[in-house]
Amino acid sequence: MSYERSNIRKLAAYVPGEQPKVSKLIKLNTNENPYPPVPAVMKAIADVQGDHLRRYPSPTAQGFREAAARVHHVEPEQVIATNGSDELLRLVMTVYCEPSGMRTNQPGGIGVTNPTYSLYSVLADIQDTPEIVVDLDDDYGMPSDLSDRWNAAGCKLGFIVNPHAPSGRFYELHEIRKVAEKFDGVLIVDEAYVDFAEHDALELVRQQPDGLGLENVLVTRTLSKGYSLAGLRFGYGIGSHKIIAALDKARDSYNTDILSQAAATTAIEARDAVAESWEKVILERDRMRDELEKRGYKVFPSAANFLLTVPPKGRVGAAKIYQSLADKGIYVRYFTHDNMCDKLRITVGTPEQNDALYNALDQIK
Amino acid sequence: MSYERSNIRKLAAYVPGEQPKVSKLIKLNTNENPYPPVPAVMKAIADVQGDHLRRYPSPTAQGFREAAARVHHVEPEQVIATNGSDELLRLVMTVYCEPSGMRTNQPGGIGVTNPTYSLYSVLADIQDTPEIVVDLDDDYGMPSDLSDRWNAAGCKLGFIVNPHAPSGRFYELHEIRKVAEKFDGVLIVDEAYVDFAEHDALELVRQQPDGLGLENVLVTRTLSKGYSLAGLRFGYGIGSHKIIAALDKARDSYNTDILSQAAATTAIEARDAVAESWEKVILERDRMRDELEKRGYKVFPSAANFLLTVPPKGRVGAAKIYQSLADKGIYVRYFTHDNMCDKLRITVGTPEQNDALYNALDQIK
């Protein structure tokens, strides 16, 4: 006998990138920053005393909210802290999407693009809410009728990843603003990789001199990538007071712990020091593009810390290259979705890791 | 304009116990262990390196699962680790309860007792699932038809807290077994306070020599109380393989962080050392009972680290005592639910904290 809801019984769970245990491996598959967290973060963790651990933490991570508000020039009430951005992405579905069954003719669901971050679809299945998929252009640009199509299906949430995953493409602010202004629901701008790009979309949610920011935009962030803190599980959202207040009611009561609150607050305050690693990654991203193109690979434009690439035609295919690299202890990401076939997504590593990748590619015949 | 679902819009959020910031206060209101975590836990946190934080943690907290399985004599596949037991309690609703609206004539909801831990009701509202409430006896015993009444309403989940909150009453194993065997859904046995009691309900879920444990029981635990780690946000569940596999599919992909995994694994392995603090709390609980009874208070039997008590009749009422104590910097818990009126719940503190409480009570006229 099964006790669970039928949508859960049928659920195909999200498959995270592999986390091989052998420590000599070169992991270019899950988009971590290759440099360690800044020393101030380690000190903040070490400074947490037993008596702090004994007591409940701030339910809202108030210290972090205030620090993030200062760094991003918004108000603390526009910030929500979560257990990774995973929690935040799940929470928006809980708060905005109707669990009406996954029939796409029902309103209340989510609008996504194809391709996009694969977790959204899994979370929609868990919420048992419909998912409307709109194909991107061949170069991963957004079609001009994206909002219209989401609106026509009654979507309550729309998801844009910027820089886009898994392509790395960067959407300009005016493109996102247009989607948000035309969309009837709440637009999630997932900026997991924005630390490696030149701009962000916070202008859309900031209080402007002439009034409020857009009421229906939530920008989501994570410390997993840019801040080298994937192990910490800390994400946050920045949006209108109204969105944050609604999310705040439905999150777990004490959703972030005292160690991660201390580390995250210090990390975001040390943003300028952390940014030195972003500069190094960006330099290596440019070099990786050159090295791959030199070898005949097509490389899509990327403002993130990874490159999406297509091996030279008529030679060894992406699946085989993925496996050959893995055999040599170098992990990259290979997707099996229809429209991602024969492509590899490679995280930008340290110069040494990247050199090892180029050498390994040269050995694959 | 509001974007959120109507059940969320109407939601009255869970109100956690007060966490006053003044450090000289004596906090006897949220049931933390008054003693700090054991030194081994602090060392485990200090041993986490930057390179660990940089990478994603084990998605399942595998090291913890294995340690908990050894300590509790179950299999690792019978354990799920969560971001506090809060996450686990929310997750069971997601997995088992139908979001059919909160109309109590619809099946698929939760069965609770009255009184019980107030979070269950909030989580049911978030899931938009019906809640069936069955009154406990005057001495907080379970009525013999508890399962029948939950079954009649089509409940998918039933919740028992043992030791019971907010009374502290301990239910014997045979009582819980009877509820589980008669109940058609999954029975959650919330053992948040079990470290201060003499027995637990794990026998119900353990593989027996003659076969499996009960398939429909999930025991939930937290490190917040007994292990002095409320700040860490770490909970776990122990149940049948089937229940754990279903929950595992629907949890956030990386729901516990590497620092809390390290600390929690060490804490549970150091159970014998931690238990010394439980012994001290139990001694003080007995002394607190004597001191309160000496002052004319009625004190309910308790196997937890708190006492539920009724002030002497015809004198100052609970609300006034609560406020007078707060004015003196001593926080206890005062409930305003109907059937909890004129009662105080007092966490057992250190001998010094408890002495301060008795002195303060003597000054209230």
Please give the radius of gyration of chain A in angstroms.
21 Å
Strand segment count of chain A: 13
What overall geometry of chain A do the principal axes of the alpha carbons give? globular
Largest interface: A-B, 81 and 80 residues
Helix % of chain A is 25-40%
- Low-confidence runs of at least 5 consecutive residues of chain A: none
Tally the helices of chain A.
13
How would you classify the quaternary structure? homodimer
Structural class given helices, strands, pairing of chain A? alpha/beta
Q: Give the N-terminus to C-terminus distance of chain A in angstroms.
A: 52 Å
Q: Which band does the percent of strand residues of chain A land in?
A: 5-15%
| Helix-strand sequence of chain A | HEHHHEHEHEHEHEEEHHHEEHEEEH
Characterize the main sheet of chain A.
Answer: 7 strands, mixed
Average pLDDT over all residues of chain A:
93
Spatial arrangement of strands, main beta sheet of chain A? 2-8-7-6-5-3-4
List the helices and strands and how they pair.
2 copies of one chain form a homodimer.
Chain A: H1 6-9, E1 26-27, H2 39-46, H3 50-54, H4 62-72, E2 79-82, H5 84-96, E3 110-114, H6 119-127, E4 131-135, H7 146-152, E5 157-161, H8 173-182, E6 186-190, E7 217-222, E8 235-239, H9 241-250, H10 258-269, H11 271-294, E9 298-299, E10 306-310, H12 318-327, E11 330-331, E12 333-334, E13 344-347, H13 351-363
Parallel strand pairs in A: 1-11, 3-4, 3-5, 5-6, 6-7
Antiparallel strand pairs in A: 2-8, 7-8, 9-10, 10-13, 12-13
Outline:
The structure is a homodimer of 365-residue chains. Chain A has 365 residues and is an alpha/beta fold. Chain A has 13 helices and 13 strands.
